[in-house]
């Protein structure tokens, strides 16, 4: 039976067809992944690769790099701190101080309108616990600012339903490592069920809304 030549030919044809189908699928996936990209003159070599799923740092795509967002200097400043304020009550947390607070881990997806969605393991401080240090009660909304000097995603607001979610984090680590600069180092927001555009990277301040 094993030596039946017809049988072998069939097997060869079948696997060749499967192989070609596989190529068709990956080419289509690549086109749909890259179709919405804009090519930034700032980093002509770096724009294509990072957005392919799994090809960015820490196995996660990057929509806008730290270089493109012009945050490299401010985000790597050793004197960086995250300002958390609630009216006149205000505190500043260095990265080391944030790491000293209770850390929570959550597997959450980033879903970008450009057409990709990737899950990752995030670790950091619960947003609701962080704002509690300024006396903010549950049910508070916040305004979140990025270090990014300009652009659409530098300021976002988050309603209490997301702030109070125990998996909404000020993330400091991604997939078991220090957050990569392109993923929002020194700290970023990650919350369940929010569009990617609201998962603010390179945090500067969090302000409790009255
Ligand atoms: N400050 C800032 N945060 C940002 C963005 C940005 O351009 N600036 N892009 C957002 C968008 S559109 C997405 S999809 C996610 C992508 O996160 P990642 O690059 O870590 O994968 O970050 C979000 N956070
Ligand atoms: Mo996005």
What does this structure look like?
By secondary structure, this protein is of the alpha+beta class. 26% of the residues lie in helices and 27% in strands. It contains six helices and ten strands, in the order αααββαββαββαββββ. The chain has helices spanning 5-34, 66-69, 72-76, 95-100, 127-132, 160-163, and strands at residues 82-86, 89-93, 104-112, 116-126, 142-146, 155-158, 169-174, 177-178, 188-190, 203-208. A hairpin with a 2-residue loop joins β7 and β8 (177-178). Mean pLDDT is 82; it is low at 1-50. The chain binds ligand MTE and molybdenum atom. The ligand Nc1nc2c(c(=O)[nH]1)N[C@H]1C(S)=C(S)[C@@H](COP(=O)(O)O)O[C@H]1N2 binds at residues 60-64, 69, 110, 112, 146, 148, 151, 153-154, 183-184, 196-197, 199-202.
Summarize it.
The protein is an alpha+beta fold and 210 residues long.
Q: What compounds sit in this structure?
A: the ligand Nc1nc2c(c(=O)[nH]1)N[C@H]1C(S)=C(S)[C@@H](COP(=O)(O)O)O[C@H]1N2, molybdenum atom
Radius of gyration: 22 Å
In this structure, how is the largest beta sheet organized? 5 strands, mixed
Order of helices and strands: HHHEEHEEHEEHEEEE
| Proportion of helical residues | 25-40%
The average pLDDT value, as a whole number, equals 82
Large-scale geometry: globular
Cα separation of the termini: 79 Å
Strand content: 25-35%
Number of helices: 6
Alpha-beta classification = alpha+beta
Stretches with pLDDT under 50, minimum 5 residues: 1-50
Itemize the secondary structure elements and their pairings.
Elements: H1 5-34, H2 66-69, H3 72-76, E1 82-86, E2 89-93, H4 95-100, E3 104-112, E4 116-126, H5 127-132, E5 142-146, E6 155-158, H6 160-163, E7 169-174, E8 177-178, E9 188-190, E10 203-208
Parallel strand pairs: 1-10
Antiparallel strand pairs: 1-2, 3-4, 4-7, 5-6, 5-10, 7-8, 7-9
The chain binds the ligand Nc1nc2c(c(=O)[nH]1)N[C@H]1C(S)=C(S)[C@@H](COP(=O)(O)O)O[C@H]1N2 and molybdenum atom.
